[in-house]
Amino acid sequence: MNLPLIIANWKLNGNKKIFSTLLNFLKKNKKVFKQKCKLNIAPSHIYLYKFREIIKENQWINLSAQNVDIHVSGAFTGEISALMLKDMLVTHVIIGHSERRNFHNENEYLIAEKFNLLKKQNLIPILCIGETIEEKKDNKTIEICKKQIDIIFELVGKKAFYNTIIAYEPIWSIGSGNSANPKEVQFILSTLRTYIKEKSSSFLEDFYLLYGGSVNENNIHFFCKEKDIDGFLVGTACLNFDIFLNILKKI
Ligand code: 13P
Asked: Are 192 and 145 in contact (CB under 8 A)?
């Protein structure tokens, strides 16, 4: 494995004080982070501004947003646009997370539109895909993931996945403390990599396949052994700074 890409998805957590502490913690442990991973932080939109300074000073951290609207400006109360994100030095945007698919009724067409918009705006989509527990029991994981990928190809075209990230996050694993089996994840990701390569019919540059779902200090080591896992989308375990640092030390 090259240096893994680690994206810390803070979801609906944190406040001004916690993010100030996080910034100091990142600065203090810069050496470990730089040695162990390519780090990417995804705070809630309203705290993105706090990271501007560290992003400007330190090229070793990238900044992600957790959502984006499909419009870039106009009368769309409450939304955040790609232009605003770029203004905050954001480079990546998480889309298609199961929490948005399920709790905010985002369907696959809306997600594909967001993906398309991000590509046009030169922002890097982090597309989350994954199956429910019922689909897993029915052996439909690969089929479901391919379907979630196909809709993107249909709207964006053959080169859709150039310079993008896909995070395979089985829904049943997220926040459950129950991670997927690393060998099974390896099989799923290698199948998807081949599938995407074939459909892209061109060299797939700068393409990452991540795993997300209850990644922690006890299991990361096993995932790192698998060759098609390029990194991790981490939720709960990044909220505790000591655990987050321990995760890195286990890589
Ligand atoms: P957990 O690490 O809490 O399972 O969350 C994973 C996730 O949803 C990251 O986007």
From this structure: yes
- CA-nearest residue, atom 9 of ligand 1: 235
Express the helix, strand and coil content of the chain in percent, nearest 5 each: 45, 15, 40
pTM of this prediction? 0.96
Domains and CATH numbers, the chain: 5-249 (3.20.20.70)
Q: Is 130 in the pocket of ligand 1 (CB under 6 A)?
A: no
Residues 88-114: tens digit of each pLDDT: 999 999 999 999 999 999 999 999 999
What's the rounded Cα separation, in Å, for the pair 143 and 149?
10
Q: Is 221 a catalytic residue?
A: no
What's the token pair of residue 189? Answer: 């990701």
Q: Which atom of ligand 1 is nearest to the CA of 94?
A: 10
How far, in Å, is the centroid of ligand 1 from the Cα of 235?
4
Considering 92, 97, 99, 106, which one is annotated as catalytic?
97
CB atoms within 10 A of CB 20: 12
